[in-house]
Specification:
Length: 107
């Protein structure tokens, strides 16, 4: 389960994908398959989630890694390079950004 906590010392990566309503589910299928078959099995992977906006024009993935180097190694994996090229080809724009959890609030 993904746990967002400011005490998390690993690497958080949020990727945004600009898509069209016609390609959103193709991209979702490709991302789900990548997470299921490759990403979650990579060394240092902690957790992840995929989100789709109501208009089906944006997809966001949230992943946590033990270390920034683990995420970067996953990107260099030959199978992920092939998958990322295919996913990128279905998107208008795709941007991965590394973040640090600064704070969280709960009721």
């Amino acid at each position: 389960m993904t746990r967002i906590d400011k005490e998390f010392t690993g690497q958080t990566v949020i990727c945004t994908f600009e898509v069209t309503p016609g390609t959103a589910h193709d991209v979702l299928d490709a991302l789900n398959e990548a997470y299921d078959q490759v990403i979650r099995h990579q060394p240092g992977y902690v957790s992840g989630a995929i989100h789709l906006n109501d208009a089906q024009t944006r997809i966001c993935t949230y992943s946590q890694w033990r270390d920034r180097r683990d995420y970067q190694a996953m990107l260099r994996n030959p199978e992920m390079r092939t998958r990322n090229r295919a996913i990128h080809g279905m998107c208008r724009h795709f941007e991965p950004v590394m973040y640090e959890v600064v704070d969280t609030w709960q009721t």
